[in-house]
Amino acid sequence: MVGLMYLLYSAALAAALLLAAPWWLLGMLRHGKYRAGLAERLGRVPERVVRGRGAIWMHAVSVGEVLAVSQLIEALRQRYPERRVVISTTTATGQKLARERFGPENVFYFPLDFAFAIRPWLRALQPELVVMAETEFWPNFLRLAREGGARVAVVNARISDRSLAGYRRWRGLLGGVLDSIDAFLAQSDEDARRLAEIGAPRERIKVSGNLKFDARPAAASPAAALLRRAIEKGEAQPVIVCGSTVEGEEERLLAAFVAVREQHPKAAIILAPRHPERFVPVAQMVATSGLPWKRRSQLAAEDAVSCGVVLLDTLGELAAVYALADVAFVGGSLVPRGGHNILEPAQHAVAILVGPHTENFRDIVALFRQGDAVRVVQPAELVAALLSLLGDDAERHAMGRRAAEVVRAQTGATERTLEALAALLPLTADTREPAPAGRPTT
Prior knowledge:
Blueprint: H1 2-31, H2 38-41, E1 56-59, H3 63-79, E2 85-89, H4 92-102, E3 107-109, H5 115-125, E4 129-133, H6 139-147, E5 151-157, H7 161-169, H8 171-178, E6 183-186, H9 189-197, E7 205-207, H10 222-234, E8 239-245, H11 250-263, E9 268-273, H12 279-287, E10 293-295, E11 308-311, H13 318-321, E12 327-330, H14 343-347, E13 351-354, H15 362-370, E14 375-376, H16 382-390, H17 393-409, H18 413-422
Parallel strand pairs: 1-2, 1-4, 2-3, 4-5, 5-6, 6-7, 8-9, 8-12, 9-11, 10-11, 12-13, 13-14
């Protein structure tokens, strides 16, 4: 019966991929999406990836997850120097960041959830421990990893409002998949409750906190330094950074900025769309707005920004650019997209605004609201909120300090997660004795 379930799942996944193939091909042709790492996703292990027995395999989908687990990866490397820690990602942006941080020999694209794509990676890496960031429940991968002798853990686990209904619907089938996981380390009590509700064994669930609070602030980057010099040279002030914006938000933010300029004619706004394929349409939108503007990708060392719009049309620079802000707006929240991570501007002690749609970060936003360290505004309130903060230096700076303090108060998840993972690993890389499937050791 179990084998039939996995067979039906694989057939359904193949059918879904076949139906989506035209959309994938269009994305490849128009934006170059999905082309990167295709061979690796299909099971080809490149020569650059170091092979050998006893790896710790960390999977982090995209940039946010890579940033969240970076401290944990460094801690694992320090505690287990005899083991290799390898990292897989799903997105190209996550791949780029992971290779920069951990070396291309340790980083690769996560395989598609088919046995033919997964087995070559398991043979090459022979992992002792597989760690999935947040909630990546890939049935075939989890089953094959456990059959190969690896322990499996999900760290920084959360169940979003949007995904909860789907998990509930498939709870009967999901239970068998979740039984392949030895430990669930949840971000919060609510996430732990939801994990149990969808079928995770209660005795394997622990609350370890949110790893994102332990992520180090982004170091000053050449991009941020270039922008800072241009802003200082042009004497633009104040500066509003709008990060991870999505479709339907840039128009509202630009309209709000026009209103802000009436009181602050030297103001500058830095727009950072969430997805690279939107750089061009957002550039076209800004070009027709009548506002002075520049592309970050075309900004030269001698250029000055005296006011107007800067389009951050480059990857991996937003976290450091938040340090330039007087006020930060974090996108995906004015429209119903669930919001994005507010910790990056908070680490720089910047006053933060978000819209009402923050379901994906409900616990983090709740903590910040309790600490009076974020303002949640309706679209109609955006202009008033910006003008209020920009007109009150003392409150703006105090709000930024409160945000940084919330981050400091919530640290410690990395150490708790590390201790929980240590219980799943044998003492040395050469003495692996796997437990029966689904049974964690202590």
